[in-house]
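Key result, reporting period 2: structure in, sequence out.
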């Protein structure tokens, strides 16, 4: 498998088409050895972006990743690491959450410590914050970049309107603009990436680091309505996720998509991830995995994207409409 790279929006940074994230896995579902095996497998296959956030396992995910990055001794100029601020790392006081200058600066310092790095390559505003003016957030991000603590900043699950406003503020004051957004994108969840952001790609040049390409595993075909026993969808406290992602209508579509995938000689997870890559607006697809075998399989998606002919794309559209 040869990894391919795409520019992150109009920035000059090139990220691997597939990247690796740690939500629900590092510091939670998998032990440190598995986390290390996953990162090594990814890196050895050309993955150059590892995604993280202050809230993932309340800071523990960043600690695990930081220890692995240190132990691996990969040259710092060969990988990109992110953090995201908004939800806090456990504390729930108003000073400990949100996108105001105080939290963005303190969350950045805490992430640098947990990840054991001198700078974050990517720093995301994890959600919009209705209690902070966008101009305060833009200034805070600009200042962190000026201080050398962050290289690129962006948003996650913001509206097109919010992103456009952030650009307008940055341009008015000659500040560094956000270059990437992290939205959910998969065969079940397309609206934001395909419709809402459509005007932004050519105007502000948005890059996208998309999440949950397999809808938390539903697009692997392994789930029944109760959820596969060894999966995140059966983990304590994640009933909300199972209810959001798993239902009969989706399972019926999964069966039909599986038939298309099999006709192409692909497994359903590889098919579903490769489908995301057929959208040129996607800069990188962030993978999640709880076992190395899953990641090994999913990495095949880079080459599988070449099999998506116009006829296959039509079949997919018809299946999703049924
Ligand atoms: P996916 O939708 O791809 O789900 C990954 C999970 O699906 C795995 O952990 C595994 O779970 C199962 N799985 C993956 N591959 C296979 C396979 N080949 N066979 C069987 N099961 C498989 O991605 P995530 O939801 O994990 O999201 C990816 C990353 O995106 C996160 O780690 C995070 O970095 C980012 N993210 C960002 C968000 C944001 O708000 N910005 C929100 C959510 C995620 P299991 O074994 O438990 O079934």
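The corresponding designed sequence is given below.
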């Amino acid at each position: 498998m040869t990894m391919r790279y795409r520019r992150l929006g109009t920035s000059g940074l090139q990220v691997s088409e597939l990247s690796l994230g740690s939500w629900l896995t590092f510091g939670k579902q998998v032990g440190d050895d598995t986390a290390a095996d996953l990162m090594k497998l990814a890196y050895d296959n050309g993955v150059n972006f590892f995604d993280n956030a202050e809230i993932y396992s309340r800071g523990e995910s960043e600690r695990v990743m930081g220890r692995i990055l240190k132990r691996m001794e990969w040259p710092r100029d060969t990988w990109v690491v992110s953090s995201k601020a908004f939800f806090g790392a456990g504390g729930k006081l108003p000073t400990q959450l949100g996108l105001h200058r105080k939290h963005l600066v303190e969350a950045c310092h805490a992430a640098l410590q947990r990840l054991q790095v001198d700078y974050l390559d990517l720093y995301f505003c994890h959600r919009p914050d209705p209690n902070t003016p966008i101009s305060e957030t833009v200034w805070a991000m600009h200042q962190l970049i000026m201080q050398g603590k962050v290289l690129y900043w962006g948003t996650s699950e913001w509206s097109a309107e919010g992103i456009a406003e952030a650009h307008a503020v940055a341009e008015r004051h000659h500040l560094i603009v956000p270059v990437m957004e992290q939205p959910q994108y998969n065969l079940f969840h397309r609206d934001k990436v395909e419709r809402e952001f459509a005007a932004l790609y050519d105007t502000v040049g948005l890059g996208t680091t998309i999440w949950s390409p397999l809808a938390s595993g539903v697009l692997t075909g392994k789930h029944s309505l109760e959820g596969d026993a060894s999966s995140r969808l059966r983990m304590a406290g994640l009933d909300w996720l199972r209810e959001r992602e798993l239902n009969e209508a989706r399972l019926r579509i999964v069966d039909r998509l599986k038939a298309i995938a099999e006709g192409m000689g692909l497994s359903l997870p590889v098919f579903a991830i490769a489908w995301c890559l057929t959208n040129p607006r996607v800069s990188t697809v962030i993978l999640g995995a709880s076992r190395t075998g899953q990641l090994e399989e999913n990495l095949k998606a880079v080459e599988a994207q070449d099999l998506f002919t116009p006829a296959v794309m039509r079949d997919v559209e018809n299946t999703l409409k049924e």
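The beta strands are 5-7, 14-16, 18-21, 49-51, 80-85, 120-125, 150-155, 180-181, 207-210, 284-287. The longest strand covers residues 80-85. This case is discussed further under Risks and Mitigation.
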